[in-house]
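Notebook entry, structure prediction.
Reason for the run: the old model in the group folder had no record of what sequence produced it. Starting over properly, with the input documented here first.
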Amino acid sequence: QVQLQESGPGLVKPSQTLSLTCTVSGASVTTSKYYWSWIRQPPGKGLEWMGAIHYSGRTNYSPSLKSRTSISRDTSKNQFTLQLSSVTPEDTAVYYCATFVSWGQGTQVTVSS
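New structure, fully documented this time:
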């Protein structure tokens, strides 16, 4: 079965870039028809889709986050990554990586000085 695991720092300072990695097992990030997404949930709020990378390498982003978000992949490591620039405390959330058959467990990221 497909399994995903997020990793990255739990604390980021304001104005810095948040970087998270999702390690995939049970499938390849180049497997046909798969999308690999990043989703977040701020405290007390609903889920927010941030963007995704297609198995072909094409990316799509939420319009509200597009100017600050970059998603890439490392096919040799079977990983995909999220970078969110110029973070503020409003970016504090649990961040999930996901595909249509599986989600990671989520990782808490707090933006604070």
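Summary: The two ends are 39 Å apart (CA to CA).
The old model has been moved to the deprecated folder.
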